[in-house]
Amino acid sequence: MPVITYREALHQALVEEMRRDERVFVMGEDVGLFEGAYKVTAGLMREFGNKRVKDTPISEQAIIGSGVGAAMLGLRPVVEIMTLNFIMVAMDQIVNSAPKAHYMSGGQVKVPLVVRTPEGAGHQLGAEHSHCLDAWFAHLPGLKVVAPSMPADAKGLLKTAIRDDNPVLFLENLALYTTRGEVPEGEHLVPFGKADVKRQGEDLTIIGLSRMTLMALEAAKRLEEQGISAEVVDIRSLRPLDVDTIINSVKKTNRAIVVEEGWRSFGFGAEVAARIYEEAFDYLDAPVVRIASAEVPMPYSKPLEQAALPSVDRVVEAAKKLAA
Amino acid sequence: METRAKTTREIKAALRRYSKDELLRLHNEMLLIRRFEEKAAEMYVRAKIGGYLHLNIGEEAVVAGAFSALEPADYVFSYYREHGHALARGADPKRVMAELLGKATGLCRGRGGSMHLFDTEHRLYGGWGIVGQSLPQAVGAGIYIDYTGGKEVCLCIFGEGATDIGAFGESLNLASLWNLPVIFLCVNNQYAMGTRFDQASAQEAIWRKSVAFDMYGERVDGMDVLAVRQAMEGAIRRARVERKPSLLEAVAYRYVGHSMADPGLYRTSQEVDAWKQRDPITNFRQILKEAGMIDDRQIKAAEEEVAGIVAGAVEFAESSPYPSPEDLPLDIYAP
Fold first, then answer.
1. Is the CB of A226 inside 8 Å of chain B's CB atoms?
2. CB-based contact (8 Å) between B170 and chain A?
3. Which chain B residue has the Cα nearest residue A59?
4. Does the pLDDT at position A218 exceed 70?
5. Which residues on A lie below 8 Å from B167 (Cβ)?
6. Is residue B2 part of a domain?
7. Which CATH number does the domain housing residue B172 bear?
8. Which residues are CB-contacts of B9 (< 8 A; sequence separation ≥ 6)?
9. Residue from B177, B284, B25 nearest A56 by CA
10. Does residue B101 belong to any structural domain of this protein?
11. B138–A69 C-beta distance less than 8 A
12. Using CA atoms, how far apart are residues A40 and A18, in angstroms rounded to an integer?
């Protein structure tokens, strides 16, 4: 199987789906001539022309909102918001329009829209450009939210997202674009609502998503050297959430750590921990541990930024304490 | 704000452009909206309708004039003051009233309510509750038409308050930049809740906001159904044939409060009465009478017909079942 980057996997998914279905088009800031701020859409304008690859002005409300409108009438827009940090100015369209149209219309309209955007910190981009707000969006019924950690999932989930008849927020991660992995050629679909056990283990479960899954895997490797066997569950899809895979793992290991890049309060870890308490309380040998970013606006200075973010060291330390 | 009233000669010229049947249809359409809305207000006071209720009373000429110029294949994106829009688009009054009452037989099976009427059979795509929310969506409809090479146009209708939000500029810019067949029709009913438009907008001539986007703009008397119709015909031609958007400003007046909860303390009764003197239905009736196209007997017949439609809508809505609580999770996601 070919080894390619996360970026190339996303690119492959876009190209394949655009070739497969003429209703699929790409729209966003600098996605065409500039080839995308992170080069995911490189070469698309050459192959598909400017009707199917639309460079927009800096108008996030119009980008997502017109995506909703075009999707309601039958196209399948894949819009790019340059980073998640810019989606806040278009919250009305992502919160009110996209996820509610199908329900409010009594099922009359569908919104097959994909909003692709990278989130994540670690590049000294400061407080406004380092957000990880997956939990905000996963809160919304009517929206689907996925966040792949590896190239194969990136390709498979994006293809599934484009074929889904519902609005999908597709969360990429800045730090993952250059990561590499085996990716099946051609047709490769990853279903929504299916978590993936990325590593089998016996002593405890580490639950992550997106970049945090890679951190969890790295921690698991180190823990193995110290005689602790960690299972790693990659959520992949926040909404719909695959609770069964989480619960089954916890029933086996009796201990759980949730690693999230966002802030802890009211976050992804809180939701996962609550589900574990609700459905596997009697199986737990210890309280669920949450590892998250420090609750500060992300600072610019490198050592401060690193101190704010979850790290492999922090996961390893927490796991050792939990397994003791 | 004044828009110049037509001279007798201009009125005659306007009438000559339409068949008698068409003119009577416009009259009846306005009448249906007025009586339907009066009944909706009554049903609200009787606590049959919940939530917010925004009425089209005083705006009938804008609705009938604009919507009558559309083809069935054209698209409409509207906002929360849209009962009349649904009716003018051809939605069944029974199902509109049933939706207002939250019944299973409503247009949206009770999921939407007064502010969220959808009727895709008649190409009405909401019914959106946040000011200016549907403007970017209408641009998306324009993208769809452009993408598929269709001949439809998209009517995006909104209040003057929506021209102050950010998405207004983004949407007009994109529609003009990409030559999309979208007609932005601003119903300037002069008040955004209690704030008069000239207290909110530095540019009091709303239509001139088109200039910033190199778009055609026009102000029209929104109390004159034929003036609206004619302006709309121009905008439709521009969209369908020239593939260019327009911004139309129809100056009208909301006789009633912003919603049913509004006592109207921000304006005088003299002002309201002055605008009622320019009532779109009464004045149009007078014009038709003077032209010998309608008489008192026909007016009475039209009133009776409309009263029957409205009574039928109420009867249907009241006798319809509520949705079952078991249906609560249906339609969150498309299969």
1. no
2. yes
3. B170
4. yes
5. 61-62, 65, 92
6. no
7. 3.40.50.970
8. none
9. B177
10. yes
11. yes
12. 14
Q: Tokens for B103?
A: 């019944």
Q: pTM value? A: 0.96
C-alpha–C-alpha distance, residues A263 and A292, integer Å: 6
Of the partner residues A62, A107, A110, the one whose CB lies closest to the CB of residue B171: A62
CA dihedral B132, A117, B333, A142 (to 10 degrees): -50
Confidence of residue B3 (pLDDT cuts 50, 70, 90): low
Q: H or E stretch including A84? A: none
Region B85-96: what's the mean pLDDT? Answer: 98
Q: Which residues of chain B lie closer than 8 angstroms to A67, CB-CB?
A: 140
Please tell me which of the candidates A71, A89, A108 has its beta carbon nearest to residue B120: A108
Instruction: Please determine, for residue B2, whether its predicted confidence score (pLDDT) is greater than 70.
Output: no
B182 CA: distance to closest CA in chain A (Å)? 12
The label of the residue with tokens 């249809």 reads B25
C-alpha B312/C-alpha B306 separation (Å) is 10
How far does A138 lie from chain B, in Å, by closest CA?
A: 14
Among candidates B54, B80, B38, B25, which has minimal Cα distance to B229? Answer: B25
Q: Evaluate whether B103 touches B324 at the Cβ level (below 8 Å).
A: no
Q: What is the pLDDT of residues A16-38, one digit of tens each?
A: 999 999 999 999 999 999 999 99
Rounded CA-CA distance A318/A55 in Å is 46
Query: Which residue among A75, A107, A166 places its CB closest to the CB of B144?
Result: A75
- Which residues of chain A have a CB within 8 Å of the CB of B333? 102, 142, 144, 166
**Three-state DSSP class for A146?**
strand
Q: Is residue B331 assigned to a domain?
A: no
pLDDT digits 0-9 by tens, A138-166: 999 999 999 999 999 999 999 999 999 99
Contact B133 A92 (CB under 8 A): yes
B328 in a structural domain = no
Number of domains within chain B:
1
Strand duo A237-239 + A144-146: pairing: antiparallel
Residues of A in contact with B140 (CB under 8 A): 65-73, 77
Structure tokens at B2: 């004044």
Is B114 an interface residue toward A (CB < 8 Å)?
no
Q: How far apart are CA A25 and CA A71, in angstroms?
A: 10
pLDDT digits (tens, 9 = 90+) for B65-90: 999 999 999 999 999 999 999 999 99
Please check whether residue A230 is in contact with residue A199, taking contact to mean a CB–CB distance below 8 angstroms. yes
> How far is the C-alpha of A210 from the C-alpha of A149, rounded, in Å?
4
From chain B, pick out residues whose CB is under 8 angstroms from the CB of A168.
Answer: none
Chain B CB within 8 Å of residue A72 CB: yes
Question: Which backbone phi and psi does B3 adopt, to 5 degrees?
Answer: -120, 135
Residue B30 has pLDDT above 80, yes or no: yes
Catalytic residues of A: 60, 129
In terms of residue numbers, what domain contains B194? 8-319
